[in-house]
Amino acid sequence: MAGNISSAAAPITSSLSKLQALNGLFAIYKKQGPTSADVLNALKEALLKEAGVQNPNPRKRKKQSLKMGHGGTLDSAASGVLVVGIGNGTKMLSTMLAGSKKYVAVGELGKATDTLDATGSVILEKDYEHITRLDLEDKLKAFTGDIMQVPPLYSALKKDGQRLSVLLKKGHKVEAKPARPVTVYNLTLQEFKPPHFTLDIECGGGFYVRSLVDDLGKALSSCAHVKELIRTKQGQFTLEEHALHEEQWTLERILFSLQPCSESEQALDCTKPPEADTLGTHSEIKMKT
User: Fold this and answer.
1) Are strands 68-71 and 24-30 parallel, antiparallel or unpaired?
2) DSSP code of 75?
3) If you count Cβ atoms within 10 Å of the first and of the last residue's Cβ in the chain, which end, N or C, has fewer?
C-alpha cells in the first residue's frame, strides 16, 4: 500500500518541481474586469492545481510555493498583454519592460468622468459637435514626443503607503501628483465617429492613456474619457503572438512560451528596491500606464 501512495505522489512532486524550477518571462491575456493582481492570482492557482497542490491560496505569500510577479499594471477596465515573471524572472521585469508599450484606446467626447474612464461617474458634459477629424489630428501633435503629464487621481500611485484610488474610495481627500515627463513615440487617429474616436498609441514607461484622453478633450474645448483600452504590446511581447489566454495557462504552454533568464540575469542582486512609486510589494512591478 505504501508503494502505491509513493508512486501516486511522484508525478505530483515532479510537476511541482518543474514549475518551481522555471525562471523567465512570459505574457498572458488580461480580460476586462479583474485587476492585474486578481489575474496573476488566478494564474498561480491554475498552475498550482495542475501541479497537484491541494487548496492552493495564491494570496498567502508566506506559504507561497511559487514565486511570480507581473510587470506593467493594467486597469481593471483594460485588457491585453500582461507580462509575468516567474522564479528569477521577477528580477527581469523592471529592466526588460522598460521599452515601449502599444495601446489601442477608444475615447468618448462630450463626457468627463472622475476616474477618466467608463468605470467612473460622469462629472461634466460639454458639446463636441464643433470637433472635426482634422481638429483632433492637429491636437495630437501637441501630445507627441517628450511631454509633461499629470497622472490620474484614481491610480496605483501611492500616498503614505496607500494607493490613491483606495484612499479616494474611502472618502479621503487626495491631491493630484505633480506633472512628470513622459514620452509618446507615436500617436495616430485610427477612427473618428463622433462622439467616439480610436487612437493608436506607442509610449514609454509612466504614461497614462486616461490622462492623455482627458487632456485631449480639454484641448478640443470639450471633454472626454476612455471608453475602452487594449494593450497590444509590452516590451518584446505582443498580444497576437505571445499572450496566453486563460485556457492556455498550463505548464506545457508556459514552458513553450517562456523567455528564460540568462545566468547573469539570474545572478542579479535585486535587494535594493527601486523608488516606492514604481515598485509594488514582493515582485509585482508597477509600471504605470
Assistant:
1) unpaired
2) P
3) N
